[in-house]
């Protein structure tokens, strides 16, 4: 990670008897997009509000660019916030909304004209300066809020679920625009979201939060391919979980015995020994599915035979639910060729599933309550 510009040091926050943040420490790198990701009630918005000065921690410190800002009011911090509802002044024009911060700061007329125009152009609202928020689309209002927040050149821009009020296609477009704006201005964005795809697509680093604590920090690839525990594996995308016991160890690989399921040969990245319990995650796309038995040449390739119970066509890919003995496996097949030219696998077909031992990942065990909460839907 780049040099830290923002640090949360041992932040604890309680509301009555409820601990919302429990001794949270995080470093945010200068110039990156850093996301706080987690389900509702995990503490991510409270941490953002503490960063912005809208809440005070019960314990801990917030350090910005080497200075303790924990007790500073919001207007004394080099931090600006884009709220979920944008919080624009409805009676003001786009120009006046964007220029407002500069006027409050006492900037001269020439500076206000130059800087307000610059940021209106940056967010592609040139020609809309005289409109009021009620005359704009949701995406345009968001751009006004971003321009207003950036015009005073903060060190950190806080974005609190900024895309929640937009429809799917507009959210996707605004993610690209946010990334472009970030590249243009080069400051640090602290982005709060419960949407995994948003965080994965825009972030340099992500802190996954749960029950007031940080479970894991990493870049999107690390979190997806090497989740720390079953909560993260389930929350960041879909996965199949398997509990078993190490049956034997062969060099860097081991064989895992699983109740009512074939034994699996997997990479032993946790260096487990014979008799150790293991929790495995295998992503649906790591399986290949075929109606004929594939030829196997690698000793660490796993081959499973099952029956298709559900088929869900999703355009770019198809999801299959395959029964293998007493287990129901989620499998995703990407459509690399024109689907109408293929012989499609259908409900009730006998199929073969194949996956490489390197593609099963060993997890730290998590609570049954969390696994039930995040279980894949039985559809």
Question: Mind explaining what this structure looks like?
Answer:
Helix content is 24%, strand content 36%. It is of the alpha+beta class and 379 residues long. It folds into two domains: 4-230, P-loop containing nucleotide triphosphate hydrolases (Rossmann fold, 3-Layer(aba) Sandwich), CATH 3.40.50.300; 231-373, OB fold (Dihydrolipoamide Acetyltransferase, E2P). A six-stranded mixed beta sheet has the order 6-7-8-3-9-10, with helices on both faces. A hairpin with a 2-residue loop joins strand 12 and strand 13. Helix 2 (94-104) packs across helix 3, helix 2 (94-104) packs parallel to helix 4 and helix 3 (109-122) packs across helix 4 (138-150). The protein is elongated. The relative contact order is 0.11.
Oligomer: single chain
- CATH topology name of the largest domain: Rossmann fold
Q: How much strand?
A: 35-45%
CATH class of the largest domain: Alpha Beta
Q: What would you call the shape?
A: elongated
Percent helix: 10-25%
Adjacency order of strands in the biggest sheet: 6-7-8-3-9-10
Mean pLDDT: 90
How many E strands? 20
Give the structure's gist in a few sentences.
The chain has about 375 residues and is an alpha+beta fold. The chain has 9 helices and 20 strands.
């Amino acid at each position: 990670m780049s040099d830290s510009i923002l640090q949360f040091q041992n932040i604890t926050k309680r509301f009555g008897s409820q601990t919302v943040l429990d001794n949270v420490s995080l470093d945010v790198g200068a110039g990156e997009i850093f996301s706080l990701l987690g389900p509702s009630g995990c503490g991510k918005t409270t941490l953002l509000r503490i960063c912005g000065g809208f809440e005070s921690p019960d314990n801990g410190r917030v350090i910005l660019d080497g200075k303790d800002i924990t007790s500073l009011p919001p207007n004394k911090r080099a931090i600006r916030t884009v709220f979920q509802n944008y919080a624009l002044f409805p009676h003001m024009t786009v120009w006046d909304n964007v220029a407002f911060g500069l006027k409050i700061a006492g900037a001269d007329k020439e500076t206000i004209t130059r800087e307000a125009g610059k940021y209106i152009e940056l967010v592609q609202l040139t020609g809309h300066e005289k409109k009021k928020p009620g005359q704009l689309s949701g995406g345009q209002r968001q751009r006004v809020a971003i321009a207003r927040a950036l015009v005073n050149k903060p060190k950190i821009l806080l974005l609190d679920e900024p895309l929640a009020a937009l429809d799917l296609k507009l959210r996707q477009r605004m993610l690209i625009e946010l990334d472009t704006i970030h590249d243009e201005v080069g400051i640090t964005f602290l982005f709060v979201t419960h949407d995994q795809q948003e965080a994965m697509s825009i972030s340099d680093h992500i802190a996954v939060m749960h029950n007031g604590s940080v479970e894991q920090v990493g870049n999107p690839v690390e979190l997806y391919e090497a989740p720390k525990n079953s909560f993260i594996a389930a929350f960041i995308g879909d996965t199949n979980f398997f509990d078993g016991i190490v049956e034997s160890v062969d060099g860097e690989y081991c064989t895992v015995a699983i109740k009512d399921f074939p034994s699996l040969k997997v990479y032993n990245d946790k260096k487990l020994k014979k008799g150790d319990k293991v929790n495995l995650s295998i992503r649906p796309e790591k399986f290949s599915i075929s109606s004929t038995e594939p030829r196997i040449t690698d000793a660490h390739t796993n081959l499973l035979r099952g029956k298709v119970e559900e088929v869900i066509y999703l355009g770019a890919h198809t999801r299959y639910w395959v029964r293998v003995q007493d287990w129901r496996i989620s499998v995703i097949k990407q459509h690399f060729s024109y689907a109408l030219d293929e012989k499609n696998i259908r409900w009730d077909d006998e199929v073969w599933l194949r996956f490489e031992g390197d593609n099963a990942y060993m997890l730290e065990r998590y609570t049954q309550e969390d696994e039930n909460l995040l279980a894949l839907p039985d559809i």
